Amino acid sequence: MIGLGILIFFVAVYGFAFFYPASATQLQTYQASNGLPPSSSSIFPEICTYTVGSPAPLPTGCYPTPPGFPSVIGPTPALSPLGLGPLPMGSLTISAGGIQFYDIFNGLIKGTDWSLTIAFGVVASGALIGVAVGMVSGYFGGVVDESIMRLTDIFLSIPGLLLVIIVLAVFAPEITSIDTRVALIIGAFVVIWWPTYARVVRGQVLVIREQRYVEAARAAGAHSGRIIRKHIMPNSIYPVFVQMSLDVGSVPLLIAAIVFIGFQIFPNQNFPEWGTIAAYSVSFNVVQSFITACQTASTCTIPWWQFFFPGLALFLFAISVNFFADGLRDALDPRLRR
Questions:
Q1: pTM for the structure as a whole
Q2: Count of beta carbons in the 10 Å neighbourhood of residue 67
Q3: Residue 327 above 60 pLDDT?
Q4: Between 209 and 30, whose confidence is greater?
Q5: pLDDT at 227 over 80
Q6: 138 lies in which domain range?
Q7: How many angstroms separate the CA atoms of 216 and 214, rounded?
């Protein structure tokens, strides 16, 4: 129930993200001359003018930042009805020079629809293909089983992450539509995702098909389609939910890994997606800029919020799906119901 509650929250944010203004996720650019805060903002219309050693100006949209850290803005709670300031989760530096940043709050909200769409699209498509293939292979056996499993072995032998990178490198540069690009990403991941489900389901079906109730159904004249639908599938599908719960949370992490090594998945490198935001928070160039600034500045600022909030979003999403799938497995497993 805890997992279900967190998932409902994410689904609500997913729906809200469609109506969230796209302009809120645009980059804000800082003028880093003399290591001072911004001179302009792409979100707030006010012009911020700073001088060395002066406090932050009064107009909304201007933030005080430490010397040498022009884009480091911590969480800014305010005395408003929601208790949220302009940057409730702080900024996320995404450039080595420290002059560009994300609004983490806006980025995570707008990234919810893309992250959940990709994660559930990959896992659901891979599971459907894997379940269908595993059922046919395990039930009919013989030449059918051998042929399907050898094909599955071929796909399992392909390095998954490398295959996704190759597919994106070959086809993605010619695609400018973001919807088509996301569909390509889902398709590339599905190619490496379904064999695991096929193996899991096949192993279950090999055991279930030898049970007496299956033999009785076959003796009563039930055709193969009915036996698979009524007897094989309900008793062999529950491990799929466990595997899905592990896989859904790993999809944004794999995207983060691809972005982290420098491969651009989306048309815009600043695309709001959980994995992309998390990758930027720990990217070498950004972290190195903070280390360099700490070595030269009189004070050292550690932007803990840049790592904490994107990581927290990924953790809550992964653990909620895991909890919910575990409970769903217990509820759907006929043997546990007995």
A1: 0.76
A2: 17
A3: yes
A4: 209
A5: yes
A6: 1-25+109-338
A7: 5
